[in-house]
Design a protein that fits this description.
- This protein is α/β, with parallel strands linked by helices and 348 residues long.
- The protein has 2 domains: 205 residues, Alpha-Beta Complex (Spore Coat Polysaccharide Biosynthesis Protein SpsA, Chain A); 98 residues, no CATH class.
- Strands 1, 2, 3, 4, 5, 6, 7, 8, 9 and 10 form a 10-stranded mixed beta sheet that branches.
- Helix 7 runs parallel beside helix 9 and helix 10 runs antiparallel to helix 11.
- The chain is globular.
- The termini are far apart.
């Protein structure tokens, strides 16, 4: 693939000016109306942060309107954490761009203001870059949590031991496996490949990780050291119900298809599309169970736009049956419960 720095849909990330003090780390924290979670994010970073000569920590706020992240930064950071507020709302892609451009460290960690990292994250990531100086990025296994911070799951193991990810390009192209808080990227990689693609409102991170994997080895850390928050106010949550998230996913696949080996690009793209067609149908099933019919229909339509493979068609045909069986089971449980409550001791 071409790594030309001048690209119509990617910002150019210039090198850090000569003479600038360069810490090893830049922990750049983009925020927008999430100050309620930001305190926890910052506390987890500060608990394992070395001094400012080794780690830049800065919050980049996209002109929040619902809360005051600057006050949180001041209360928690006591001057240790930098703060920059966009003059106007720029959108999350532009906010990411600002994070990258303001970073001074050799390693950049983009950490959403509603996520956090576990103890040992920075030491383990630093060790990865020291063990494999040729890698462009390193990521760890991730924890998925809900709005209240309750853990809901952990991403599956990609391989049994930490080290360079095997078959990295093929694996990352078929499915989004990396949540942004779990990955660290060399700054020079962003300088070479540019910023996030501004055509994408969702899946911009997936496109970036595949772009990096096409050019650099990537380290995988087996320890679950980053926690990713899933909630309705997230970028993905906002776009899921109207199908936009799926459409951007398809666009990301079409964009990074050109990064893949010519002999396998078509098959990998088909596999990725089928993966997300089946994901859309799983979402549709959950919506149908909740009798949320309009977005369920949208998800089914999006699934067909991804793929009309036999597996996808079979799943679509089975949706009404599965939902019907679910409600039949629910009716049976409710009937049994009513029967229990209506029968008095001695009636039988």
């Amino acid at each position: 693939m071409s790594t030309n720095k001048v690209h119509p849909y990617r910002s150019t990330i210039p090198p850090v000016p000569e003479g600038t003090n360069r810490p090893l780390w830049s922990v750049m924290i983009p925020t927008y109306n999430c100050a309620g979670y930001l305190r926890e994010t910052l506390v987890h970073v500060l608990a394992q942060a070395p001094g400012p000569e080794l780690m830049q920590i800065e919050v980049i706020d996209d002109c929040s309107t619902a809360d005051d992240p600057a006050t949180v930064v001041e209360e928690v950071g006591h001057g240790r954490i930098g703060f920059y507020r966009q003059p106007e709302n720029a959108g999350h892609i532009k906010n990411f761009e600002t994070c990258l451009k303001r970073s001074r460290g050799k390693l950049i960690h983009l950490l959403h203001g509603d996520d956090y990292v576990m103890e040992g994250f920075y030491l383990r990531m630093q060790s990865a870059f020291e063990q494999s100086p040729n890698i462009g990025a390193a990521f760890c296994r991730q924890i998925f949590m809900d709005e209240q911070g309750h853990w809901r799951g952990i991403s599956p193991l990609e391989q049994m031991e930490s080290g360079p990810l095997n078959n990295r390009l093929q694996r990352l192209a078929v499915e989004q496996r990396i949540m942004t808080p779990s990955i660290v990227v060399r700054r020079e990689v962003y300088e070479e490949l540019g910023g996030f693609d501004n055509r994408l409102i969702c899946s911009e991170d997936w496109e970036m990780w595949v772009r990096i994997a096409a050019c650099y080895p990537i380290w995988y850390e087996v320890g679950p050291l980053a926690a990713y928050r899933m909630h309705s106010a997230s970028n993905t949550g906002r776009h899921l119900r109207n199908g936009e998230e799926r459409r951007y996913t398809r666009q990301a696949i079409e964009i990074f298809k050109s990064y893949l080996p010519h002999e396998s690009a078509d098959s990998l793209a088909r596999e990725a599309k089928e993966t997300y067609a089946l994901s859309a149908l799983e979402t549709a099933y959950r919506m149908l169970i909740c009798r949320d019919f309009t977005p369920a229909v949208i998800q089914i339509r999006e699934a067909l736009d991804f793929s009309s493979s036999f597996r996808v068609i079979r799943q679509i045909v089975g949706l009404p049956i599965g939902v019907g069986l679910y409600w039949a089971r629910q009716a049976t449980v409710r009937t049994a419960d009513i029967f229990k409550k209506s029968v008095r001791p001695g009636d039988l």
